[in-house]
């Protein structure tokens, strides 16, 4: 988020869209790879929608072509997109991977989570479920 804000202040919106579109396509491909791996390793899991494996494999072929073409034609944009993704690695290690955090770090993370939820209007009432409108 911080890297995106800095890029928005320094660069233009078109450049940010290029960075994010590369990241999106990268994530879409990884998701489809995960789908294929789950179909192979856990074939008995209930799936409400099940398509022929030819569909995701065909998608991956086109995805690989577009990703390789993007890396070839605009390596700087793709590199900055990867750097934007990698800025989340320290956040992952701080918030998820590090199990025995000091209490002050836990309080900080909890307060930031609460603040973010209030900012985005996603906080449910304490002890209850979301109210129906």
UniProtKB/TrEMBL annotation:
<dbReference type="GO" id="GO:0042941">
    <property type="term" value="P:D-alanine transmembrane transport"/>
</dbReference>
<keyword id="KW-0472">Membrane</keyword>
<dbReference type="GO" id="GO:0042942">
    <property type="term" value="P:D-serine transmembrane transport"/>
</dbReference>
<dbReference type="GO" id="GO:0015179">
    <property type="term" value="F:L-amino acid transmembrane transporter activity"/>
</dbReference>
<dbReference type="GO" id="GO:0015175">
    <property type="term" value="F:neutral L-amino acid transmembrane transporter activity"/>
</dbReference>
<keyword id="KW-0812">Transmembrane</keyword>
<protein>
    <submittedName>
        <fullName>AAA1 protein</fullName>
    </submittedName>
</protein>
<keyword id="KW-1133">Transmembrane helix</keyword>
<dbReference type="InterPro" id="IPR050598">
    <property type="entry name" value="AminoAcid_Transporter"/>
</dbReference>
<feature type="transmembrane region" description="Helical">
    <location>
        <begin position="51"/>
        <end position="73"/>
    </location>
</feature>
<feature type="transmembrane region" description="Helical">
    <location>
        <begin position="79"/>
        <end position="98"/>
    </location>
</feature>
<feature type="transmembrane region" description="Helical">
    <location>
        <begin position="16"/>
        <end position="39"/>
    </location>
</feature>
